[in-house]
Amino acid sequence: MEIYVVKSGDTVDLIAAYYDVSVDELVRINQLTPPYRLAIGQALLIPSKEKETDRPFIYVGGYAYPYIDSSVLEETLPFLSNLFVFSYGYTPEGEILPPPVDDTFMIELAKRYGTRPILTLAPIDESGNFNNLLIHQLLNNQEAIDTLTENLLNTVTDRGFEGVDLDFEYILAADREAYVAFVEHIQQAVATLGYQTSVALAPKTSANQRGILYEGLDYSGLGAAADHVLLMTYEWGFTFSEPRAVAPINEVRKVVEYAISVIPAEKINLGIPNYGYDWTLPFIPGQSRATAISLEYAITLAINHDVPIEFDEVAMSPHFTYFENGTQHEVWFEDVRSIREKLNLVLEYDLRGVSYWQILRFFYPNWVLLDNTFRIQKS
User: Which residues contact 306 (CB under 8 A, 6 or more apart)?
Assistant: First the structure.
């Protein structure tokens, strides 16, 4: 689909007339709300007369917490192959800890839309917090692994899940081989139910990359052990970082190029962020904390403060600054231009698909763009 970048003096009526498209359709697919104000630099999808018939199939995943609004979930499910329910935890002894909010409606809705509900397992303790000591304790206790495996299979069966996703982060370098063995063990167990196991991978660019996020991850081994993987290609800009793009395409490309060198492309899903960040300036290391915002809200901020949206041609990401109550803010987010760059990587490298973190907020232009680029594999 064509993308138009708003210029000074533009209105939805003028843009619709220029492209000979319906105002209602232009408004609908770009999720515009009355009185349909626009920001200079805002990217708009232009409705296409026809949808390509030879679009390739890909798998599309979306992560969601059980407190997702049911209407948002229903709007999103037609575009998803897999719904990753975040998140189930476990005790040091291998007992499964369900989410604090009942996820039954998510599982039932997913199946109604032909989407597979996937149990996401993470090192979450009984207080509901990530506890990475749990990873080391589990990987070095075969009895706990056996108990966890049995409980995991029972939970998948009893709750009606159709697969397992492992989101283990900050794995110790000493546990690198043990984690590969664990993933292989879980994959074989889940396969007995006829389902698949996926694993989330922090965004590495080399085998020996330093850092606590990376040293415990053996891309090659995990790619072989799991049925498919998610590259968590986001969070370059994050809550405690300096203002920058969340998923700069130049950095994302480096991760993809390393990944395909050690993992078959048909096993790789590219991570796409469905959010942005709002930083207050000046940025003070160790003190500043960005606020996560939805993509729709980011655009609304630019419109309400009457500031232009700029576009970084290296990161291929939109951003802008504004003042509120005397304080300057800097916002980086995703729009249809930056998302299209990521979808083009999937095409370029013939990857398995994409997964969105997370789908709690509905950004319709993304799904229109996705649906006009690919066909969603539902089975």
Answer: 39
Crossing angle for the helix pair 142-159 and 176-191, to the nearest 10 degrees: 40
- The total of structural domains in the chain comes to 2
Alpha carbon of residue 204 to chain centroid: 16
| Structural domain includes residue 299 | no
- The sign one gets for the Cα dihedral 196, 202, 206, 210 is negative
Q: Does the active-site annotation cover 169?
A: yes
pLDDT(114) > 90: yes
Q: Would you say residue 200 lies in a domain?
A: yes
The span from the CA of 163 to the CA of 149, in Å, is 13
d(C-alpha 312, C-alpha 298), whole Å: 16
Q: Other C-beta atoms within 10 Å of 305: how many?
A: 15
Distances (CA, A) of 181 to 171, 175, 239: 13, 10, 33
pLDDT of residue 128: 81
Q: What pLDDT does residue 49 have?
A: 77
Nearest C-alpha neighbor of 268 from the set 319, 212, 220: 220
Q: Residue 350 falls within a domain, yes or no? A: yes
Range of the domain at 1: 1-50
CATH code, domain with 365: 3.20.20.80
pLDDT digits (tens, 9 = 90+) for 288-319: 999 999 999 999 999 999 999 999 999 999 99
Q: Is residue 202 part of a domain?
A: yes
Contact between 324 and 315 under an 8 Å Cβ cutoff? The reply is no
**Arithmetic mean of pLDDT, 82-88:** 97
The catalytically annotated residue of 169, 184, 235, 310 is: 169
